[in-house]
Design a protein that fits this description.
Layout (H helix, E strand, L loop, with lengths): L17 H5 L2 H26 L10 H5 L10 H10 L11 H11 L6 H9 L1 H11 L19 H22 L3 H18 L5 H23 L5 H16 L4 H16 L2 H7 L3 H13 L4 H15 L12 E2 L6 E2 L14 H10 L1 H6 L1 H33 L8 H4 L19 E5 L2 E6 L24 E5 L18
Antiparallel strand pairs: 1-2, 3-4, 4-5
């Protein structure tokens, strides 16, 4: 018994459970990286959203988004009928139509080639119907709440072509000495421009400005015409001022743009129309999810627009200075006002903009439109001062040495303020020979002495904005020969 061997039992090592194995160093790092990749986007999305207070829509969306306008008062039906009657531009290998039209509008009716003359004649019926629309009190392409990125604004684009035909007609009437009738048609073009920017987004505002500025060239030609009576100049000055008062505030276009972006981002079909390719759509959806869009940009829009609406409609001299990056044009806060605690400061708004790719892409359009709006206002007021100077010169045989003489002579109720001046100064003017230079300080806020006031390069920052009355421009197409009326 004593010599009997005891059995030997071997204990086989058992593999530790999975959770314990994962705690080993060689597994910790790769597992952590996998978890990070999975959950990091969610953490980033949460951080980006919780740091921006939701202040809701910065204006009454329901009240603003719907305009009650009876068809009888809406110019849209007349404009649609006019576009249907519009005869297309002539074509031909020998004819550069757009260049010929530009030369004609610049140099006068005698420079219009026969094909363009016939085109103007063929479209007189369309212009008659268009003019009926310009006399309507308002224009509504569609409700502000219905705009989306893919909204068809072809009607508004066609109005630009009708306005070009109208300008040709005005040029013909001026050449024929029918100055009063020329003003009637010019006034129709101005009203059409006012219509376009009444209830539209930023692109509509820019087109409306363009239409009105095109008509300013006709006003200048009328003001410089030797046969223009004092009564006609006085009428143009008064009626042009009345039309100017009907232009919608810039805040209207900003609100429409806000509604358009909001509607587009929440409409899958509109987004699909922008990116019709299925692969692009999948990538867009994935990117939007990872960046927490459009929820992120929507919250930023609310904060940004609240900042803009607080100041944008005030004259420049009453606005707070813009702070931060000039691309965004965020207003500093008014020290005399108190702001809700959930409204971000200007610096915080800019920080949030930099977190949103969509905001960085879309927000600069607001500032660009504001700059264009100020340029347009300067041109408007320069035209008014120019008309007043012409009237004064006819009465006294000289131009006034002090702009206030335009007021004391009952030509203007006040000398217009320079829209670009932060100090509230009036527009400047000087007479050089037979030319009258009228200008505002422009975007840089510095009086450069009227340097290059008629430059069309709006991207430059060191020029004044205005016009020159009396100067005969020289077109680059010097080889063009005038076409007498009998051709």
């Amino acid at each position: 018994m004593m010599n009997e061997e005891l059995p030997i039992y071997r204990i086989e090592p058992q593999e530790p459970p999975l959770w314990l194995r994962l705690l080993q160093w060689k597994y910790v790092f790769p597992v952590s990286m996998i978890l990070f990749v999975i959950f990091a986007p969610f953490a980033v999305r949460t951080f980006m959203i919780v740091s921006i207070p939701d202040i809701g829509d910065p204006f009454d969306v329901d009240a603003f988004g719907t305009v009650n306008l009876p068809d009888a008062e809406n110019a849209r039906l007349d404009y649609e009928a006019a576009v249907a009657l519009l005869v297309p531009k002539p074509t031909g290998a020998h004819l550069d139509v757009d260049t010929q039209i530009d030369v004609a509008l610049e140099e006068g009716w005698n420079y219009v080639v026969p094909e363009i003359r016939q085109w103007e004649k063929d479209n007189r019926l369309a212009l008659e119907r268009w003019k009926i629309g310009t006399e309507k009190p308002d224009f509504l392409l569609l409700q502000p709440s219905e705009f989306k990125f893919d909204t068809d604004i072809e009607l508004i684009q066609q109005l630009r072509m009708l306005n070009r035909v109208n300008r040709l007609q005005c040029s013909r009437l001026v050449e024929e000495g029918e100055l009063d009738e020329a003003w009637e048609w010019c006034r129709a073009g101005l009203r059409c421009g006012v219509h376009v920017n009444q209830h539209g987004v930023l692109i509509c505002r820019l087109i409306g400005i363009h239409l009105q500025e095109e008509c300013m060239a006709i006003i200048r030609r009328l003001s410089e015409h030797s046969a223009a009576s004092d009564e006609l100049l006085r009428r143009i000055l008064d009626e042009y001022g009345e039309i100017d008062q009907k232009n919608a505030r810039l805040s209207v276009a900003l609100k429409c743009e806000y509604l358009m972006i909001k509607s587009t981002f929440h409409d899958k079909q509109s987004m699909a129309n922008i990116f019709p390719d299925a692969e692009q759509q999948r990538l867009l959806n994935a990117g939007m999810f990872l960046l927490h869009e459009p929820q992120l940009s929507q919250l930023i829009w609310q904060q940004y627009l609240a900042n803009q609406l607080d100041q944008i409609d005030l004259p420049l001299k009453e606005q707070q200075k813009r702070t931060g990056h000039k691309r965004y044009g965020i207003f500093d806060r008014d020290p005399k006002k108190s702001y809700p605690s959930d409204h971000l400061t200007p610096a915080e708004i800019e920080t949030m903009i930099r977190r949103s790719l969509l905001a960085q892409l879309l927000f600069p359009a607001f500032q660009q439109t504001h700059n264009r709006h100020l340029q347009f206002q300067t041109h408007q007021r320069a035209i008014q001062v120019g008309l007043a100077l012409r009237i004064y010169h006819r009465r006294h045989g000289r131009y006034p040495s002090d702009p206030e003489e335009l007021v004391t002579d009952n030509i203007m109720s006040e000398v217009p303020i320079d829209p670009s001046s932060r100090t509230g100064e009036t527009l400047r003017y000087c007479v050089v020979g037979e030319d009258v230079f009228i200008w505002g300080v422009g975007e840089n806020g510095v009086d450069d002495g009227g340097t290059d006031v008629e430059s069309a390069d709006y991207e430059r920052r060191n020029i004044d904005i205005g016009l020159v009355l009396g100067r005969k421009k020289v077109d680059s197409v010097e080889a063009q020969k005038p076409y007498p009326d009998n051709q």
